[in-house]
Design a protein that fits this description.
- There is one protein chain.
- This protein has about 140 residues and is an all-alpha fold.
- The chain has helices at about 5-30, 45-70, 75-95, 100-135.
- Helix 1 runs antiparallel to helix 2 (about 45-70) and helix 3 packs antiparallel against helix 4.
- The radius of gyration is 17 Å and the shape is elongated.
- The protein starts with a helix and ends with a helix.
């Protein structure tokens, strides 16, 4: 087994919790959470749940399945996921109606990228340590 899937679940719900906190803080300080283009016009609480936890859980499960056959895939998935999330974070600056919304969304994307990186990296490192001990 390449890694423990429970770590991905913990990372997904941790990222969702921190992103939810950022959302409510941004709303309190006056961020509009509105967009001039893109998939939707408003960012609501349900969007945070859908676009934070679900992608990490689904892609983490796919990484788990593929990583069982090819453990090296975990390292590739780790960096591809971080690159995709960071690219998406930059896009927020073009569509957000105000700086508060753009900054909040960028912070949420950084939280998701860090959560994905830590979940797959720590899991992969643990697997490598166990595999090295078994080869002794």
């Amino acid at each position: 087994m390449p890694f423990n899937f429970a770590q991905v679940v913990i990372a997904a719900f941790g990222a969702m919790g921190i992103s939810t906190l950022a959302y409510f803080v941004a709303r309190v300080i006056g961020a509009s959470m509105e967009y001039s283009g893109g998939l939707f016009r408003n960012l609501d609480f349900i969007h945070i749940v859908r676009f934070t936890a679900l992608p990490i859980l689904i892609l983490g499960f796919l990484t788990f399945l593929i990583g069982r056959a090819k453990p090296g895939f975990c390292r590739i998935a780790q960096w591809v996921g971080v690159a995709a999330v960071l690219t998406s974070a930059v896009v927020q600056w073009f569509f957000a109606e105000d700086w508060g919304t753009a900054l909040t969304l960028a912070i949420m994307h950084l939280v998701v990228a860090a959560s994905w990186y830590i979940a797959v990296n720590y899991s992969n490192r643990k697997f490598n340590e166990i595999a090295a001990l078994e080869n002794l």
